[in-house]
Amino acid sequence: MEQQGIFEKPMVKWGLYLGGLNVAYILVLYLIDVSLLISFWNSAISLVLLVAFMVLAMKEQRRNNNEALSYGNGVMESMGASEETIDQAMGNMDERQFKQDLRASFTAILITSIFSAIVALIVAAFVKKEAPLFEEEA
Length: 138
Hints:
By secondary structure, the protein is mostly helical.
């Protein structure tokens, strides 16, 4: 398999598409009515978009890899956060007042990353397809 640039990798490419769509979506909601940002429907739509873009990214990754995608490759094995970091962030949530500052933003990013990793685990379980043991000759 040839070397790909970071922006040519399906997971990164589709993640950037989702990020751009989310920015536009949140901007539209903000312009219509700020209270829409905390509605149930906003959360549901965001979750559906997240799963849809993960499925698209994993299917493209599978297509680029001769129709094979292992479970480990589907969830991108190294997410980067240690158990201690996660436990510390969760412990800090109980002690803090909820105000918007830099630390709160990083905590929100961490929680979103953990949630996204869980969704990726579930999506990868359905999208994975193992490579055949023996290649068929044409």
